[in-house]
Amino acid sequence: MSYDFDTVYDRTNSESAKWHHHPPGVLPMFVADMDFRSPEPVIRALHERVEHGFFGYGTEQPEFYEVICARLARRYGWPVQPEAIVLLPGVIPSFNLAVREFAAPGDGVLMHAPTYEPILRCPGNYGMDRHEALLVRGPAGGYIHDPAVLEAAVTERTRVFVLCNPHNPTGHVFTRAELAHMAEVCLDRNILIVSDEIHCDLVYPGHEHVPIATLSPEVEARTITLMAPSKTFNLPGLKASIAVIPNEELRARFVAARGDLVKAVNILGYTAALSAYRDCDEWLAELMRYLEANRDFLLRYVATELPGISVSPPEGTYLAWLDCRAMPAAQGDPHRFFLERAKVGLSDGVSFGEQGHGFVRLNFACPRSLLEEGLDRMARAVRHS
């Protein structure tokens, strides 16, 4: 079956946060929200649920847990029992919940930098310190984990490590060896691992997503893994995610901390998540082929048409981390330059940490014509600056 990722849909007549964030005329390429319709099986499942006409309190059915466990085994070779799965309304509230429960004010939360803005903000939400381990450039130009840097960032007050893998914003997919070092440090220092793996399905050929919890039983027992169908199947507005916590004691503390605050996923989010994970592998395979072609188109375009800008190939996600520091016209603020001069809304690199000065993040999960239009606008702005 072939799938249509080329049709451009008008989202300005909906309540889309992406398409209403900027003034009319600005092409939004910032937030991680794809400009593709969600898979037809998900849409059908939602139609059927709505036609049922009842939206009372829901309860999870055994099939949901069976589908998740089968998927983890099939994609990652990870045998997980159904009781290890905790259903939640989002990855962001989940890692905030874990940090709040397993660390205290004045403690430290370890993370790579630059990193996803909500992870960056998380320690400050609870009076905790941010312990940053800077990613470094590898021989091929992409970002990689530096063991010495991570070790130097750890202190006696470090309690939780929030890992983002695949990494946002750089697109790096951490290797098994990189993950093994992170896990070793955390086990040695009794640091809990909270692994945000929301982009785990979005990995390109030549790279492999390895859930850090699969490295060993000891690592699994110290890890809370967070996943969701939201990025993969374009369902972020339906607020459904899972935490995988095989350790019974760890899971009991997490669930108790959750309490009634984020106890239930809304019934439509549950319906969509089940259908996405059960029925949409073929759609996902086609999506990845399209995203890979978009990524390669973007890389060629940047290399030939955008002087002063460089980008290392994303190994995962649909996000490109553009280095604009050699572009004099931007005067150190490429986000503002492209917003004002090109009418393209990108993510400001500074929002991902101090290391993001001179960078912007571009979302290329859109029909090719929109990607080309956005890049053409950027190229014209650079040429006329």
Overview features:
single chain, 385 residues, alpha/beta, Aspartate Aminotransferase, domain 1, Aspartate Aminotransferase, domain 2, 7-stranded mixed sheet, globular
Task: Briefly summarize what is shown.
With 385 residues, the protein is an alpha/beta fold.
**CATH homology group of the largest domain:** Type I PLP-dependent aspartate aminotransferase-like (Major domain)
Kindly estimate the percentage of residues that lie in beta strands according to DSSP.
5-15%
- What is the residue-mean pLDDT, rounded to a whole number? 96
Poorly predicted runs are none
How helix-rich are the residues, as a percent range?
Answer: 25-40%
What shape does the CA trace take?
A: globular
How many whole angstroms does the radius of gyration measure?
21 Å
Q: Helical segment tally?
A: 14
Task: Please tell me the total number of domains.
Answer: 2
The largest sheet has its strands arranged as 2-10-9-8-7-3-4
* CATH architecture group name of the largest domain: 3-Layer(aba) Sandwich
Q: How does the helix and strand content classify structurally? A: alpha/beta
Tell me the total number of β-strands: 14
Q: Identify the CATH class of the largest domain.
A: Alpha Beta
CATH topology title of the largest domain: Aspartate Aminotransferase, domain 2
> What is the N-to-C succession of helices and strands?
HEHHEHEHEEEHEHEHEHEHHHEHEEEH
Biggest sheet descriptor:
7 strands, mixed
